[in-house]
User: Fold these one by one.
Assistant:
Number 1:
Amino acid sequence: MTDLKTPRSPLPATLNADSVCGDTMFAISSSTNLAETTDQLESVNKLKAALHDDPNVAISEQGYAWTPSEFDVGKDKTQFRRYEEACETVKAFYREQHEKQTVAHNLKARQAFQSRVRVEMTVWQALQKLDTLVDDSDPDTSLSQIEHLLQTAEAIRRDGKPRWMQLVGLIHDLGKLLIFFGAEGQWDVVGDTFPVGCAFDKRNVLSESFKLNPDYSDPMYSTECGMYTPECGLDHVMLSWGHDEYMLVRYLAGVARFANA
């Protein structure tokens, strides 16, 4: 995987995020104790079973649990995320993203991220910077990103959620700052995330446009598992590069720095 132009070999079984993203530390350790993991899964299953009996908790068909929101209870959620009916700006964004988010680009983007000189700013300065950005991938809002973040935090506060969750709502899209520091375009920063290096799933947003991607017809990358070993686990899968992973990388780096201080 050293040749960024023609990365042909599958990811090794021992590959984790450190080998792709440098100081990224979100891979699950191969030394995780199996018995401990089993105990943790059992605890989660007991918690999920208890949630089914809680009248204040909703359970989705997929098994996800959450406390229903109160202030927007009257909103018709089916009217959101309707990409097929979105404006041309949204559709054009996904055509470009799906065409350009190749394995080669993702390897290059991660290497460039590690070598880039970073700007230091406060959280509020970062929020103000985002006042000039409107996310072209979002079919439901034309607000600037600072408005979106403040709106999200306020909605969480109004819904009675804890302060830590309000903070998460405020900063959850700060990774979109990438657009101002070396990104090749919005397609390189925002939008839905998907695995690269294997066949593109038809359940992805506007999936027909993946046919424009050079990897779509690649002999290796177009197969179900592509460059991955079957059942290798998500910690070995490379997702399309963007603001979500960037935010995670910076957060984990900050946690590690404080822990070692």
Number 2:
Amino acid sequence: MSPVDSLVAQITQSPEYKTLAAEAHTRGIAADVSLEKGSPDKATVARLRGWVAEMILPTEAFAGRSPYSDEPIPVLVDVERTRGVKAAGLRLLVRLQVCPFVLEDGEEEEALMITCLASFTNERDAWVTHGAYEDARALLLATIERIKGSPKLYQILMTRILQHQVKPLFAKSKTPLLTAQGRKAIHPLPAAFETIDVEAGNKPWKYRSPHIVTVFKWVLDQIDAPLVESNWPLIIPPILTLLDDASVECKIRGCESLLSLLKKTHSSLLERTGLGEVFHNALLPLLLYLPTLTPEEESLLLLEVVYTTLIELARARHPADGQRYLRLKTLDQVFRYGILQGYSHAGEHVKIANLLVQKMTSMIHEMGIHFVKHLNRVLPILSLILMAPLGTAYPPLLMAAVQTIQTILLYAWPRVPFHKADILESLVICWHKIDEEKGRTQQLEIVRQRIEETVGLLAAISKKDASFGEEIQALADADSRLQQLLTGKEST
């Protein structure tokens, strides 16, 4: 018996193969995949791999369901069992990978297999287990390493996946903002009215084949800048469709896909196509997806990726020093519309407040000294956080506020003397509350140390102001408990 005969015989007798065969019977899929008598050839192995791939692709039961659909809801009798079936299929593909016939797959079979494996590259997906993710990742790495040896084949396969797997599923979800060439429409037509009974039919990528969104993101992670430009009309419509969808999860996926694209897109391409502005306008409203209209956990996930994407978009649109004014103008709009307005709407939600304060720090790093125009609005927010009576109940927010003040001191130090009293007051009150906290946690202890560092930084910036040093010393003398914070000496 040849090595190939032996390998295929072992596979067809394996528990994984029997698991898939039982699943095929349950789903009413033809399971007549027994190998023909005699030595297995290329067609036999390809048929076996194709059947395994068909069995492990996610079904409609894992997809979302349109609230307007009258179709019966697909039921997963046992989610863990279904996930186990897909993991078993991936293990079979791992074993088949060593078969020499696999190296002779045609373009169509290779593209289909890559699509199948790429479906398991996001652990957030309901059909993905950690084991399946690791198996798929290992197989994809081996496959990509092999096909990259032939750059032409690599380009053909990536284009084929976009053309034949992704495009058909997004074909009905058209946006009036784009031309057929993936450029900004100069005079966009009003969006077509979509009746509720056709909503599900127009979004097969969401309601029938949910794995394609993960595949699309994986392809964007793999392709390079020249391949992005040559496939531009195939890439842009799915991204804008995801951003425009009502589902927060789809918007998150759209932001993640756009972020991957921006890292490989030259500013000249965004300028020629006019899509920089289109992307910006599509992302900006997402900054106000806040509680209570948006569930807090969904809002946190969305805001995290939206801010990152908007910052990257500003860099990609205006990378040159000569375009710094335009970049700062864009960031200024994001800061006003997103962080300041967002905090006024949802600042009472402590996790949202924590994320927004963290994004303040990121935005200050990007804007530098030009951030000072917002100083009068930001410092009161940070002071209220540090002086809140119950602030010690959530140390991460205190830490974020202290780090933001440190960043302000570093970038906006010329304006600090005008605000040093307010900054010092909030730091002293927060430090004192932590110092008096009984059984304070390690997190609070770290915040306390950061406050001491920040007071030292403030003192260094105000070193030329003799009156500030005298005020510090007078405050320390008046309250011995503040000796360590203000002078670095332990109180006696």
